[in-house]
Amino acid sequence: xxxxxxxxxxxxxxxxxxxxxxxxxxxxxxxxxxxxxxxxxxxxxxxxxxxxxxxxxxxxxxxxxxxxxxxxxxxxxxxxxxxxxxxxxxxxxxxxxxxxxxxxxxxxxxxxxxxxxxxxxxxxxxxxxxxxxxxxxxxxxxxxxxxxxxxxxxxxxxxxxxxxxxxxxxxxxxxxxxxxxxxxxxxxxxxxxxxxxxxxxxxxxxxxxxxxxxxxxxxxxxxxxxxxxxxxxxxxxxxxxxxxxxxxxxxxxxxxxxxxxxxxxxxxxxxxxxxxxxxxxxxxxxxxxxxxxxxxxxxxxxxxxxxxxxxxxxxxxxxxxxxxxxxxxxxxxxxxxxxxxxxxxxxxxxxxxxxxxxxxxxxxxxxxxxxxxxxxxxxxxxxxxxxxx
Length: 389
Prior knowledge:
mainly alpha; SH3 type barrels; 18 helices
């Protein structure tokens, strides 16, 4: 249930992260204070949108970063909900035919916080058994949008904890440290030998490997400092999440700290703990934790909530297709993406949608008009919210 529970945590934490309420006990209707967008019970944010985009980029035993970068990301910019600046900049950058997925160095690429990379690794962990494959594809997924060490190490820590949950059903400090060290060693080998990474490091300034290994030791010390009996507020403090909310490393550490409590505290209480901690990136941490819990097993107290959320059936379908390796090959066509985007922008100026099929979602059908948004449904059943004014 990793994808469903991840989306559940995302939808729970979304209004708290936006500052609309201090506490949730499930899903709620609310209005975003910045965009004035009406958000209904169980509707999720960019965390789940990005996770689904990664899932659709996996087929034939591989993760395809070119499809994610050239097709999913640019078109996601038209339906994103609560997106971070770094991922949005990266998405717009890929409209240029000259930008490659491993050389998208927009201004700020090396400085962005990095939770956008950590939030979307669960499909990679679900789809691949080989640890080297998981690490390689987490690296690929990360560098498409984020070029800093903290983003990558945060994403790798999340993947390590999810892999433990999936395979070992044992998450404690020692197992996390052991798995993370294995992932780090694999990452160093890939960063040193992979052809794409060699090309990436030529363009990126600085000694990335030295910075990577130095920061890795820092993360190990942070993991060592967390105790399973710590209150969540203390875990957040040790992780540094209060000081810099939404950083790749801090959201990963907060998620890992709560994951160590699985089996000791009810799954619903754990998820609500993540969703309700103010001054933290609640939707991202709750989304990551939800996926970790979902890899661990199915819990009736969360499942009872999940069934009423946006795209429940579609999330189940994508989850099952990932686990069964049943995704079909998708053609990468950047010209088609740019052409559809131009049609979409032209149509939206007259409050319409294009007649042509969406490159990712097929024929879109308008379900309702909600203020300045169209709520539309894809052929496969994912709901999108597209601004038309």
